[in-house]
């Protein structure tokens, strides 16, 4: 590799000394003085680096190493005692660079007796270009390379001086590092400066650390750890897919998968964040859709989901950049408006939202419309925390749905007191059913032709232990909202059948069937059990059903009613004329009685006007269909006379008597019949 020769062939070396002379073109030899500066610089050094002896004599050789260091760092001086070896990136005079192995051998001057030691070279340095031979560090240890290549992470091994020894293929590709940072000897500081600008991470080679960085759009975790022999490992794992999955999971945790809007947890988190800022001002529009359940039940869940998506799209178009919309559940939504507005502006925005959502929407090829009720709360006036705001917003929404205020209601503390009364009522209703606090009153039907009572309608009342007798209008809507109507309906049916079984066999008992009870699949079985348990003949039982209970699914309603008629049970259509009735509707369902709504009877007066015309038409229609016509709400002799004149079959109302408890029905029958 080299020969000892007279040093006279080196520029700057005292004649008569010996030096190591290179015999290969990919290396050169130079001499250093005791301070580490160049004392001799030969032609081979000039050929390989481009620097002449005039350029280098008296300068530290380490001045050529700085390009491979971190920003602002200079190359460390070579020791001139003992032996040392390392790899450095050397810059040629023309700007090109090459990796070189630097071997420094200190000279022993003890045999040079009488020499002026200060004038003698202190060390011989051999600089070998390893760029062509080795390329970027891949794995100097053949036994270790297969292991590194199988590790699913990028991994690099550094010496105790934090210089790169070798790395696997994934290290460079995952970190997207340039080749000049992958050569042996590259300092960990230089790599970290490129990756994150944080060179302090590797300032102390003894400290282990882990950090996560974002590089070229990818999330990477870096771990620096020490080995027992003083070497260090830098591990790199690509977490991009994991972080995307986590981000998607977090999105789904806080967003509704049907509409893409925030869900209830997402809304709660957003409100919590806003409420923690005392200076924040915002408004919440809490709204739901009337008619959604009907569409969902009649057209299917796919139609319901499509309707929700269309509503969400319309809400998005009304939002400002800082607003947040949420689909809470079912048909309920919320819109959080960040901009501070006065009451008039909020009212106008709510009206616009209601108008936009009430326009027809094409759902699976069908035009549908929904109504909208909106409850409004403002922070902090209507609540200083998330839960209070949502509670008060729900209260305001309930009042918005009562048909007043154009379907929009701002929260008022008075509503809370009324809500508390409702909650008390709900609690008492639960107890009432369990403790049998309901009672039945009965109102008779009078046959106009025979002047005899032919039947009675069962009317439920609540005998409250504190408030006394409560009429159905005060608790039935609450029971419907609680989902208690099916159970109350079953109790009413069983009780009415049992009490009617004690009355004369020509007296029919009529029982109202709620929409919840009619839509229940077990209605026919419930009726059969009530008849069996009471011993009442099926022909003496009549079920009153409203049009709205059947309109959602007329084919199913027809099947259920025919099954009941086959049992012998009579069927009455209640509140006729106030809903969706048509001739085809009447012809397709097996009614035995049609009850004319009291709103038409009230307008009879002298037998003239729209009310009289409608009652006359319905009575004539019933005669054609061979169905009994019963006028509800008859209170005066004048109304009775007109109904008798147009051949109405039966009447019901205060003109006969007010509803009476079961114990008074038999005496009433004895008196009138």
TrEMBL record:
What Gene Ontology biological process does one annotation of this record name?
Answer: regulation of DNA-templated transcription
What Pfam families does the database record attribute to this sequence? EAL, GGDEF, PAS
SUPFAM superfamilies hit by this protein = EAL domain-like, Nucleotide cyclase, PYP-like sensor domain (PAS domain)
Q: What Gene3D superfamilies does its record include?
A: 3.30.70.270, EAL domain, PAS domain
- UniProt-listed PROSITE patterns: EAL, GGDEF, PAS
Q: Which residues are in the PAS domain?
A: 31-67
Q: Where is the GGDEF domain?
A: 280-413
Which residues belong to any copy of the EAL domain?
A: 422-673
Protein name as it appears in the record = EAL domain-containing protein
Q: What is the lineage of its organism?
A: Bacteria, Pseudomonadati, Pseudomonadota, Alphaproteobacteria, Acetobacterales
